[in-house]
């Protein structure tokens, strides 16, 4: 019976965590606010307790995980619909630097010293504060840098050059398997693909990756080497 518990309890914990994560949304696996981070750690801690308990004691940690997840889900609904409540829960972005001025009060509020601020500037390619117009600390703890006009990277729009919109590359084959829905998406069929492979003396089983690039050109990798053909 103990061996069965050792197998079933981790499985129950994983299944419950999976469904609770789906309930709470993708924020739990992307950029986290401080609140999301704390909730994630707490639910994970309760899940580990669930693994260690007996079947007779499983209800308490299980209900604890569900209560935390449902509460987080309700909070996400409120923060989505009520801006003031969102600011209360997640806080507001802080302007740390603007118009050649450092805001000491904002730095103190964010518990950030100048060394940390300058380090983040360097990590993002700005070694001189004079290159920046504004630095913002976002609610997820990340820094946003807004450079001055003379310091920002050159864009194609600055050259007044008209460019064509590129298409998204579409994967057509992966490890010898044809992705039929993607063929339909690019208005092609399997007969067309088989003809392409036959013309170039290729077999489906030898194809690792084959895709249609942004210029409607066939690009493919075989198990031995890289080839490129135009259609």
What does this structure look like?
By secondary structure, the chain is an alpha+beta fold. It is built from 8 helices and 9 strands. The strands form 2 sheets. Strands 6-5-7-8-9 form a 5-stranded antiparallel β-sheet. Helix 1 packs parallel to helix 3 and helix 3 crosses helix 4 (83-90). The longest helix has 23 residues, at 2-24. The radius of gyration is 27 Å and the shape is flat. The model has no long low-confidence stretch (mean pLDDT 80).
User: Over all CA atoms, what is the radius of gyration?
Assistant: 27 Å
- Categorize the overall geometry: flat
The count of DSSP E runs of length 2 or more, i.e. the number of strands, is 9
How many helices? The count is 8
**Residues in helices, as a percent range:** 40-55%
Poorly predicted segments:
none
Terminal CA distance reads 63 Å
Class from secondary-structure proportions: alpha+beta
Largest sheet: 5 strands, antiparallel
Short structural summary:
The chain is an alpha+beta fold. The chain has helices at residues 2-24, 34-52, 59-81, 83-90, 104-109, 114-123, 180-185, 190-199; strands spanning 94-98, 101-102, 132-137, 143-147, 170-174, 177-178, 207-212, 218-222, 226-228.
